[in-house]
Amino acid sequence: MSTLKEVAVGKTVKVKKLTGDGPVKRRIMDMGITKGVEVYVRKVAPLGDPIEVTVRGYELSLRKADAEMIEVE
């Protein structure tokens, strides 16, 4: 099991599960990141925060803490 935070730049992965609860999970889901959706990792800042991804054709920036809550395969 790995999280979005561990995915290398340039890879596309499929979301398996969202961990976390309440407003944090809601915020991730509001970005269109839900189970089964593909996420492409575009860029990771030098210190690992933020992680820039493309989801459903939209370019998004995720905080490292949020990326840890997204399990991928």
UniProtKB/TrEMBL annotation:
Ranges for domain Ferrous iron transporter FeoA-like: 2-73
Keyword list, A-Z: Iron
Coiled coil: none
SUPFAM superfamilies per UniProt: C-terminal domain of transcriptional repressors
Iron found in the keyword field: yes
Entry-linked SMART domains: FeoA
Name of the molecule in the record: Ferrous iron transport protein A
